[in-house]
């Protein structure tokens, strides 16, 4: 019976070692996934911070664009007021031009706005630039005619200066708008990277949880096996003690029987050896 129990204990011990090894391997995997998750979460945080930084810059430059457009439009309005006065003078003096400076200038502004806000092929953009150039030439030509009149020359010069300032602001608007768009594109790309990194972090976290749960399950099996081993050890130890007691009892009975035989012979007059005397003493017969 003891041998059967010992064999069963060996099987449980083998199972215990297997569960322990599986638990340790799963815990190692869980730690690896946790490190990956933490690294990716830090990476995600960096991408989000980068995106926010570019968002703030984009908003700052967009606000500058809004403010510059207000100034540009104000300058254009002042110039338009002067051009209206100039147009009135031209009509009064029978100017042969079919289109006034104000009208041409408005078309120039419209074309400049198209150039700023729309995407054209290289060829189309060249055509647009050339058209704006020609129309500015027309404005300059008409302004030259008006300069013959002293009062109109003053108005034309003032209108030119306003247009020049408005044009410079328009160039500044275009430059800053492009800068705002650059930061917008960088922001979008950073958010895209953050989403991708977050997705990978979530996958690593899922693997971490699965590995950790499996490791916990293996640990429970290991603990259960350890309990069974302790139970087997108690039973086997008890059986061994019992077997030992039985063996000792049998030996004691045999010794007692031999001692009684020697004692009987001694009483009958036989001589005892030293060993015989010791045996009788051990058996408490003398």
Descriptors:
mainly alpha; single chain; 286 residues; 5 helices
The number of distinct helices, counting runs of at least 4 residues, comes to 5
Structural class by sheet pairing and helices: mainly alpha
**DSSP strand content:** under 5%
Largest sheet: none
State the order of secondary-structure elements, H for helix, E for strand: HHHHH
Describe, in plain words, how this protein is organized in 3D.
By secondary structure, this protein is an all-alpha fold. It has a domain at 32-207. Helices cover 91% and strands 0% of the residues. It has 5 helices and no strands. α1 (2-92) runs antiparallel to α4 (150-267). The chain starts with a helix and ends with a helix.
Helix/strand layout:
Elements: H1 2-92, H2 101-117, H3 122-146, H4 150-267, H5 274-282
Helix pairs in contact: 1-4, 2-3
Structure, briefly:
This protein has 286 residues and is mainly alpha-helical.
């Amino acid at each position: 019976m003891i041998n059967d129990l010992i064999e069963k204990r060996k099987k449980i011990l083998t199972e215990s070692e297997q569960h322990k090894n599986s638990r340790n391997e799963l815990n190692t995997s869980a730690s690896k996934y946790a490190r990956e998750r933490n690294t990716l979460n830090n990476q995600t945080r960096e991408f989000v911070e980068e995106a926010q930084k570019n968002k703030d810059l984009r908003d700052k430059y967009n606000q500058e664009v809004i403010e510059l457009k207000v100034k540009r439009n104000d300058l254009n309005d002042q110039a338009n007021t002067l051009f209206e006065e100039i147009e009135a003078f031209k009509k009064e003096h029978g100017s042969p031009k079919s289109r006034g400076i104000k009208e041409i200038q408005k078309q120039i502004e419209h074309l400049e706005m198209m150039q700023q806000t729309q995407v054209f092929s290289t060829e189309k953009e060249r055509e647009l630039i050339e058209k704006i150039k020609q129309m500015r030439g027309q404005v300059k030509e008409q302004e030259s005619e008006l300069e013959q009149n002293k009062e109109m020359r003053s108005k034309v010069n003032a209108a030119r200066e306003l247009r020049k300032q408005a044009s410079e602001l328009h160039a500044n608007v275009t430059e800053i708008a492009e800068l705002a768009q650059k930061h917008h594109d960088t922001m979008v790309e950073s958010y895209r990277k953050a989403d991708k990194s977050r997705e990978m972090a979530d996958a690593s976290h899922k693997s971490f949880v699965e590995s950790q749960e499996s490791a916990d399950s293996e640990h429970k099996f290991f603990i259960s096996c350890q309990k069974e081993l302790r139970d087997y050890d108690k039973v086997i130890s008890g059986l061994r003690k019992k077997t030992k007691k039985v063996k000792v009892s049998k030996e004691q009975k045999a010794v007692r029987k031999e001692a009684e035989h020697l004692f009987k012979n001694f009483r009958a007059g036989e001589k005892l050896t030293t060993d015989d005397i010791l045996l009788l003493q051990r058996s408490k017969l003398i």
